[in-house]
Amino acid sequence: MKTMKRWFIRPVAAGMVLLGAAACDDATGPGALDDAVLADMALIAADAVIEDVAVMGLSLGAGPMAAAGMEGMFQSHRVVTFYDADGNEMSAYDPLLTDYVHFLLDIDREVSRDGWTATISRSRDMIVSGLLGEEEFRTWNGTGEEDISRSRHLEDGTVRNYDLNGTFTKEDVVVPAPGAESRWPVSGTITRHLEVTIDNGVDEPRVRVIDVVITFNGTSVVTAVVNGETFEIDLATLAGRNPVRRHHGG
């Protein structure tokens, strides 16, 4: 019977804070509300992908759970199983002989920033491959689930509340190995499917289905397509700033 190596991780720094405020804060009509919702969902996706990139920078061994640029606090639990090139389970990670890793990770976070509050819970089930030898890149594939309770407090005192649950898929996300000059994923996508309950305090609560596709390109600026609307996310944005802007083409 196979056993998994388990690490219980204490709260550590994380660069996955919710950053800035979404556009269209003064939305009142249904059309304007829908536009504001897309902008808010882009910001939620930005928070998630910043977390994803931080996770992909974590140590795969038994060392502390840390990655460059991580800020804030979160609670997490991970289970890691190592395999060699023949598919045999290994007792520990070997930087030369480990071929792939089965990586389970749960993260729970409380976020409060610039009028936003959120309780976030994400579970990931991932395979990290391409590790054999002195690798230059690692490839992440996997799925996950998320549950988010979030409220956006508007400047006029009204509140736009969100409760979200959904799934996500990480497909062939290629990341430079630790120590590389760049840490940004060079290719691959993360797709999110969310069911969102929206309450702006004025209209009846409504439910929206949101699909987000984020595509990596080797730089810190990635595209996010939210129900057909294109945004750009700057993964290098400093804490407290808004990482999202609408894409204007060109």
Model description:
The protein has 250 residues and is mainly β. The protein has one domain (5-246). It has one helix and twelve strands; from the N terminus they run E-H-E-E-E-E-E-E-E-E-E-E-E. Strands 1, 2, 3, 4, 5, 6, 7, 8, 9, 10, 11 and 12 form a twelve-stranded antiparallel beta sheet that branches. A hairpin with a 2-residue loop joins strand 4 (100-113) and strand 5 (116-129).
Summarize the structure.
The chain is mainly beta.
Q: What number of structural domains do the residues give?
A: 1
Class computed from helices, strands and strand pairing: mainly beta
Rg of Cα set: 19 Å
Number of helices: 1
The biggest beta sheet reads: 12 strands, antiparallel
- Kindly report how far apart the N and C termini lie: 56 Å
H/E order of the elements?
EHEEEEEEEEEEE
Query: Count of DSSP E strands?
Result: 12
Q: How much beta, percentage-wise?
A: over 45%
Mean pLDDT: 80
Helix content: 10-25%
Principal-axes geometry comes out as elongated
Uncertain ranges = 1-30, 63-73
Supply database-style keywords.
mainly beta, 12-stranded antiparallel sheet, 250 residues
Element layout with pairings:
Elements: E1 5-12, H1 30-56, E2 74-83, E3 89-90, E4 100-113, E5 116-129, E6 137-153, E7 159-176, E8 187-199, E9 206-215, E10 221-226, E11 229-234, E12 244-246
Antiparallel strand pairs: 1-2, 2-3, 2-4, 4-5, 5-6, 6-7, 7-8, 8-9, 9-10, 10-11, 11-12
